[in-house]
Design goal:
It is a single chain. By secondary structure, the protein is α+β, with helices and mostly antiparallel strands. It is built from 5 helices and 9 strands, in the order H-E-H-E-E-E-E-E-H-E-E-E-H-H. It has a 7-stranded mixed sheet with strand order 1-8-9-6-5-3-2, sandwiched between helices. It has a two-stranded antiparallel ribbon with strand order 4-7. The chain is globular. 31% of the residues lie in helices and 27% in strands.
Length: 195
C-alpha cells in the first residue's frame, strides 16, 4: 500500500473514532432537533408564585387514568423528583421543589412529559431560557433525539416540557407533541383553585 493511500485511511479512521467518541459521550445529554419555548403570561398571574399555589403536585393529579394512552403511545412509567437536578442536565432549576415525569412509548414513537414546580414566574422563565441553550431534561426513556421535537412552557410558577421522537413525519411528531403537551392542562385547575 502506498503512502498516499495510508494517510487518508488513517485520517478517515481517526475521524470516525472521534465522531463515535463524541456521540458516545453525548448520549447521556441529548437535545431535541427542534425546540420551542414560551415564557409565562398574564393569564397565569393568579399562580405566578408558589405562595399563591402552595400545595405540591401529585403524580395522580398530573398523570390520571385518562392519560394512560396519548396519541399512539402508552404510559410506561411515572416518577417524582424532589431534587429537580435529577431530571435535568446542564441547566439549573433554582428554587424548584419537585419535578414529575411520565414516559410514553408506542410502536414507532416515544415521548415524555415533565413538569417542574418553581418558586415563581421569573424562575420558571429562567428555566425555560436555560433549556433553550444551556442544557435540557434527561431522558426517562431512551430514544434517538435526531428529528425529535420538544416544547417548554412557563405557566406561572410551573414549567412543562413535552418531548416526542421516533421515525415519523414532522406532522406525526407534532401531533404527538401536542398530545403530550395536553398534560399541562393540570395547571388550569390550579388557576381555578387560586382564584
Amino acid at each position: 500500500m502506498s503512502r498516499r493511500v495510508v494517510i487518508p485511511v488513517v485520517i478517515a479512521t481517526a475521524l470516525i473514532v472521534a465522531v463515535a467518541g463524541w456521540m458516545w459521550l453525548r448520549r447521556d445529554n441529548p437535545r431535541p432537533a427542534s425546540f420551542h419555548a414560551e415564557s409565562t403570561s398574564a393569564f397565569y398571574a393568579s399562580i405566578d408564585t408558589r405562595q399563591s399555589d402552595p400545595a405540591p403536585l401529585t403524580l395522580q393529579e398530573v398523570f390520571t387514568p385518562a392519560t394512560e394512552n396519548i396519541d399512539s403511545m402508552r404510559r410506561q412509567a411515572t416518577e417524582q423528583f424532589t431534587d429537580c437536578s435529577d431530571a435535568l442536565w446542564g441547566a439549573s432549576a433554582t428554587g424548584c421543589t419537585q419535578a414529575l415525569r411520565a414516559t410514553y412509548q408506542g410502536a414507532s414513537m416515544t415521548g415524555q412529559f415533565v413538569i417542574f414546580n418553581m418558586t415563581d414566574g421569573r424562575a420558571a422563565d429562567a428555566l425555560v431560557a436555560a433549556l433553550g441553550k444551556d442544557g435540557f431534561v434527561r431522558q426517562g426513556i431512551v430514544f434517538d433525539p435526531a428529528g425529535s421535537r420538544a416544547q417548554a412552557r412557563a405557566m406561572g410558577h410551573y414549567v412543562t416540557v413535552s418531548w416526542a421522537g421516533g421515525r415519523q413525519s414532522v406532522e406525526r411528531l407534532t401531533a404527538a407533541l401536542i398530545a403530550l403537551d395536553g398534560l399541562g392542562r393540570v395547571v388550569q385547575s390550579r388557576i381555578v383553585n387560586a382564584t
